[in-house]
Design goal:
By secondary structure, this protein is an alpha/beta fold. Helix content is 34%, strand content 20%. Strand 1, helix 1 and strand 2 form a beta-alpha-beta unit. The chain starts with a strand and ends in a 5-residue tail after the last strand. About 3% of the residues have low confidence.
């Protein structure tokens, strides 16, 4: 259970979000984690905030697909998890992901995501999200990095739906499951 998990975060001008995400990673019950922030030359306080955490920072431009690929090429973990800067993790999420992938035949894991916020827009997005879990428009976020490399990672010519494309490429060769654990 000591395998390293590489968490790759792509960012650009995320000073409003990055602290909360990095703090939620710091509070994980699973501790063998490396965090790699691939930043697209932010001109706000994103990097200043990130430097307060145990994070490897790589400055690299273009879009998220390329940033994520660069992050995983510079990772050392057995498992990979990619996140957006505006996400938050429950404290047991990474532990649950590692346990799920070890106890199943799956090589990739979908994560139930919850949209936060009380606005009608956010409530609607959160309601909508439950209808496409583990569908062709959902995203595998946790996987064995060796399999990510075998499928050549993210298609760097795609912006916006690169995570869906990755999931479709991944499930053509490997099994994937959804993490259904109740997370605290």
């Amino acid at each position: 259970m000591n395998e390293l998990v590489s968490v790759v975060i792509s960012s650009r001008n995320e000073e409003k979000n990055i602290y909360n995400l990095l703090k939620s990673i710091e509070l994980q019950t699973y501790k063998n984690i490396e965090v790699i922030l691939v930043d697209n030359f932010s001109n706000d306080k994103t990097l200043e905030i990130a430097k307060k955490f145990n994070v490897k920072i790589i400055l690299h431009g273009k879009e998220r697909s390329e940033q994520r690929n660069v992050g995983f090429k510079n990772s050392k973990g057995k498992y990979g998890l990619y996140l957006d800067a505006d996400m938050l993790l429950t404290p047991n999420l990474i532990y649950s992901l590692v346990m799920k992938i070890k106890q199943s035949e799956a090589k990739g894991i979908y994560i139930k995501e919850k949209i936060l916020g009380k606005s009608l827009f956010n409530l609607s997005r959160d309601f909508e999200r439950q209808f496409y879990e583990k569908s062709n428009i959902d995203a595998i976020r946790f996987f064995l990095i060796e399999n990510f490399i075998k499928i050549n990672g993210f298609d760097e010519d795609i912006t916006g739906q690169e995570d869906w494309d990755l999931s479709q490429k991944f499930t053509r060769l490997y099994t994937a499951e959804i993490l259904t654990d109740k997370l605290d």
